[in-house]
Amino acid sequence: MRVISGTCKGRPLKAVPGTLTRPTTDKVKESIFNIIGPYFKGGQALDLYAGSGGLGIEALSRGIDNVIFVDHNPKAVEIIKLNLKNCRFEDKVEVYRNESMRALKAIAKRKLKFDLIFLDPPYAKQRLEDEIDFIVKNDLLSQDGIIVTEHDANVSISSSIDNLSCYRQEHYGDTGITIYKMM
Question: Comparing C-alpha atoms, which of 137, 148, 138 is closest to residue 181?
Fold first, then answer.
C-alpha cells in the first residue's frame, strides 16, 4: 500500500494488522481519485472509517488542505498517526477514535463543512444511507462537495439520498464504489 500521486507519491503506508480493517487497494484508490480529482486546490475532507488513513492521506497528497480522520479501532488510530507522521501531514489533520455516528454528531455541533467525504465502513456494518442522510440533514457537505462510498459490490444503495444523486458507480471485483454529488 502506498501513496499513488502528489507530494508524497510512492511513499509506503502501513496497514492495520489483523482482519478487522480492509484497506482500499491501490488500484481502487487510483480509480477513485481519477474520477473525483485527480488533484485539488485546497478544501476540507473527512475520512470517516479511516483504517490506515490511505484515502485521506491520498487527498492531502493531491492538494486537500485538511482532513479529519475517524476510526473506532485503537490500532487503526495508531497506524493513521504513524502514516501521517511518515508523510509529514500532522499539522493538517485531526485524528479521533470514535464510532461513526457519534463522530458525525460531534462534527455537526462544530458546524463544519466538507468538500470531500470518504465512507468506507466494514462491509458487515454498513449504514451508508443513514450516515449520508445525517450528513445532508446536518449540512456537513459543501455545495460542490462529493461523498465517496466504498461497499460490497453486491450491496445496492440508492441512486439518490435527500438532495444528493449518484454521480458514478463502479465495481472492482468484490468492491463497489458509489460517488454522490448535490443535485
Answer: 148
Closest CA to 30 of 67, 12, 55: 55
Beta pairing, strands 93-97 & 114-119: unpaired
**What is the SS3 assignment for 86?**
helix
**pTM as predicted:** 0.94
Cell numbers for 114, please give them: 466538507
Alpha helices in 95-152 (DSSP H): 100-109, 128-137
- In the chain the domains, ranked by start, together with CATH numbers, are 26-182 (3.40.50.150)
Q: Give the model confidence (pLDDT) of 76-113 as tens digits.
A: 999 999 999 999 999 999 999 999 999 999 999 999 99
Look up residue 43 and give its amino acid. G
Radius of gyration of the chain (CA): 15
Q: What is the mean pLDDT of the chain?
A: 93
